[in-house]
Amino acid sequence: MQSFKQLVAEAVAQPNPFLPNLLSSLLRSFGLYNVPPIPQAYHFLIKILFLNRHFSHVPSVLHHLERNENFQIPEYIFADLIKTYGNAKRMEDAVDIFYRIPKFRCVPSVYSLNSLLSLLCTSQNGLKLVPQVLLKSLAMNIRVEESTFRLLVRALCRINKVAYAIEILQRMIDNGFGVNDKACSFTLSSFCAEGDLDGEDVIGFWRGLRKLGFCPARGDYNSVIRFLVKKGRGLDALDVLNQMKSDGIKPGIVSYTMVLNGVIAEGDFMLAEELFDELLILGLVPDVYTYSAYITALCKQNKVEEGIKMVACMEELQCKPNVLTCNTLLEAICKRGEISRARELVTEMKHKGLEMNLVAYTIIIDGLVSKGDILEACGLVEEVLHKCFCHQNFTFDEVICGLCQRGLFCEALELLKKMVDRNVSPGARVWEALLLSSESTPRFSKTALIDLVNPL
Asked: Would you say 419 and 426 are in contact if contact means Cβ atoms under 8 Å apart?
């Protein structure tokens, strides 16, 4: 058999293997090396042809196998052939060989069906062929199994046809397969990814799955919690967290952090305190996002100093604050009008290796504008432009308008030029402010503004 494989490999690897007698020569080699014409030999021959991308020879081999041999062919050979056709982007050939399996003295089963469906479900064009293949499989007396339903559910969820996936789940139960947790889990996560659903839709679906017998894992609870928090339903997310505990599943720090963010967004700070204490009692270690959520709650209650102390506690516990943590404090400090304290915090951030992001700059600039420190705000805008953080920012517009209102037209025009050079598009208010300001500026030509508009 080894000599036969060597002969086949050498023959197929020739620079010009497209010879009329290639197949007959290879078939004669069966007798030459005393190898019976068994399915495995043909399988090897076909794989070598595919490996060398000689697709045009494969139909001849299959035709000979179908018409000139009389042994039964194992189904795994066709499953492998379907997969190989798929790798070669020859989907129609894969479907064709599936339909022809009975002609090769082989009884097809769900094994080959699932091999084909797995291939078809990877592309939009393939999905269009799935209904036809399923109908044909019924005519081929193939009994669909639970694995097929799972495969279809995943495919439907991937193309956002969640309603059909739910119907498939119901069909699984109707056909006596029971509830498959993996299929339910995948459908649930896809359902939660739907952007146009509201909290009631997901809560109803969640309860429906539970009634069917679905036993969710921690990740499933987190999918629902995450969705509810995004929809502003923090208290509902807390109910899911409590259900998780009732079901004997210990929530992780991610679960608690999401719910903590949810109840804080709803303004229930007392409940947020209880949740934070609870996760500590359970032995969970808060991460930077947990601390950031808790600091947000403190800042929303105007307890900025306590928030700053919490950052110090984080550092003592080897939990390094991130930009999100500092931005939360910056926003609270600037709202109190304490710009000098905000500057100190920015300096501390830089000493700790934290670089300001666009959000941090915007917070400081807004604070400076509200205090009337337009020139300093202008300097920060120039720093942002130098770092190329953005393409449009309404805070920048406020700075230019503020410069114009104070009669600093030249400074406003200079800042505008720098914005244009960085492809930052100013808003309509900027042009209006500049035009009004230019009317009171002697020896100013409006063609200067037109020259700035043209690059945009």
From this structure: yes
The tokens describing 233, both together, are 């339903």
Residues composing the chain: 456
Q: Which token pair is 149? A: 């339903």
The SS3 call for residue 52 is coil
Q: Give pLDDT tens digits for 240-274.
A: 999 999 999 999 999 999 999 999 999 999 999 99
Chain position carrying tokens 């997901």: 202
Exposure string over 353-377, b if 16+ CB within 10 A, otherwise e = ebebeeebbbbbbbbbbeeebbebb
The vertex-253 CA angle with 331 and 355, nearest 5°, equals: 35
DSSP 363-425: HHHHHHHHHT-HHHHHHHHHHHHHHT--S--HHHHHHHHHHHHTT-HHHHHHHHHHHHHTTPP
Task: Name, in order, each residue with C-beta under 8 angstroms of 86's C-beta and a sequence gap of 6 or more.
Answer: 94, 119, 122
- Tell me the whole-structure pTM to 2 decimals: 0.66
For the segment 283-294, the average pLDDT, to the nearest whole number, is 94
Cα dihedral value 116, 119, 125, 128, nearest 10: 40
Who's near 125: CB < 8 A, 6+ residues apart?
Answer: 91
CA gap 299, 309 in Å, rounded: 12
> Angle 304-305-307 (CA atoms, 0-180°, nearest 5)?
65
- Tell which wins on pLDDT, 237 or 15: 237
